[in-house]
């Protein structure tokens, strides 16, 4: 799996961090998403799918490898 985020569109809702804390974080200053792991391990894939579904701004995209 390869994950991408569009930080321009992120509104800092934080749903991604709640769903997949090992893959996403939020910057301290603006709360914008930070992608910690663009190629997460298999055990995190379901959480990434959840994060993409929950993100209200449609920021998270992924390709299944
Ligand atoms: S859930 Fe979406 S809008 Fe909210 S912080 Fe994460 S990437 Fe940004």
Helix-strand string: EHEEHE
Count of extended strands: 4
Compute the average pLDDT.
97
Q: Biggest β-sheet, characterized?
A: 2 strands, antiparallel
Task: Estimate what percentage of residues fall within beta strands.
Answer: 15-25%
Helix content: 10-25%
Secondary-structure-based class equals: alpha+beta
Kindly provide the radius of gyration, computed on alpha-carbon positions and rounded to a whole number of angstroms.
10 Å
Output the number of helix runs.
Answer: 2
Distance between the termini: 5 Å
- Unique ligands: iron/sulfur cluster
The largest beta-sheet arranges its strands as 1-4
Shape: globular
Low-pLDDT segments: none
Describe the structure.
With 65 residues, this protein is an alpha+beta fold. Helices cover 23% and strands 22% of the residues. It is built from two helices and four strands, in the order E-H-E-E-H-E. It has helices at 15-19, 45-54, and strands spanning 2-5, 24-26, 33-35, 60-63. The strands form two sheets. A two-stranded antiparallel ribbon has the order 1-4. A two-stranded antiparallel ribbon has the order 2-3. The protein is globular, with a radius of gyration of 10 Å. The termini are close together. Bound molecules: iron/sulfur cluster. Iron/sulfur cluster is lined by residues 5, 10-16, 26, 33, 55-57, 59-60.
